[in-house]
Amino acid sequence: MKRYQIAIYIRLSKEDDRCKEESNSITMQRSLLERYVKDHFADYDLHEFCDDGYTGTNFERPGVQDMLERVRNNEINCIIVKDFSRFARDYIELGSYLEQIFPFLGVRFISLNDKYDSDNYQGSIADIDVNFKNLVYDLYSKDLSGKVRSALAVRKEQGQYVSGNSPFGYEKDPKDRHALLIAGDEAEVVRRIYSLTVEGYTASEIARLFNETHVKTPIEFKMEKGKTSRIPKGNRFMWTASTICQILRNEIYIGSIVQKKYEKDFVGGKNHIKPREEWLVSYGHHEPIIDRKVFDKVQEGRGKKRNPKRHPTHPLTGKLVCGCCSRNLSYRAGLNPYFTCKNRYSNAMDHCVDKANAMFLEQYILLMMQDKLETEGELERLTKDMIDRYIDKIVVCDEQRIEIFWKENSKVCGCRS
Ligand SMILES: [Zn+2]
Which residue in 21, 54, 59, 168 is deepest, having the highest Cβ count within 10 Å? Predict the structure, then answer.
């Protein structure tokens, strides 16, 4: 066995990704460490351990676990990292590895940026230096997320506008990013939506009228101003009744800002709307586009709560799109449940999907899946549970001008029209 069994340990966390700090990228860390080894060691074997997308606040990382296991088996006697925080951000744990575990196992530990090499570092001065750095890492790690969160909460409590995007009809004040200014061209569309509603038009009638007369959609306004690079699902962006409804109930147009409207049941859970009295509303935050009386009048005929039982969903909801216009198909329950494209009716697009029988679609997709799995020899290995999981992979489906995709890019069969 060669004298040194060197482990280079590389870690990239999600935070690094957000900061886009190139010096922390996997490739950069690897080339830095490899060069160091080449320049400073003669007789060695090199082993690489890597954790991509893991936080350094704990040791639950496959790469680090693998490495420590090899250390325990005496297969590694030297570890090299770019800086301490790559190996661990937890002060106590890092300290115990550096001061007790590694010396006990006879492992040399080198951290390049910290200019730390356990072979050269002995005595109390070194300890102070290392401990101080560790402490900083630890505090940095624990504090950063908390600080970001609390700063945001304070801004919200002060009634400041904190979203990154400006709402349709407004633009951010170039002098103060928490202030909103009226965007004339967009505000004109908002006013029209309200006045048409007062005249008695329904949301879907307004959407249809706008599509027929080619009124630009909110996203098209944004594109024109270079604020987004989104591409339309079909050939163009369309007004929908739900976009109109969102504009009709948004209090931003009477100068108010509503915050803390949603809450999560648990971390990572879904957002739920809170009771109105718990919302944080700041009145008179910015110049209104719509008169309060008009807004209230519009609300009178609206806001009747939808009964969720009357709007059942189907496992394929959100996974089927129209092969003609690419809009998500809507599910209609009943004796003969079916999927349909709303553009057929609301925008008189005659080529759109009319009625695609839901039970037929289920059977068809099941057959397609079996077919696909059989040709790939996977069927025997699959239990029913696994098939259920596969259903998520289906983004879209084909019959009566519907398309099927298995994964994002591999198109199985195309549009029939
Ligand atoms: Zn369609």
Answer: 168
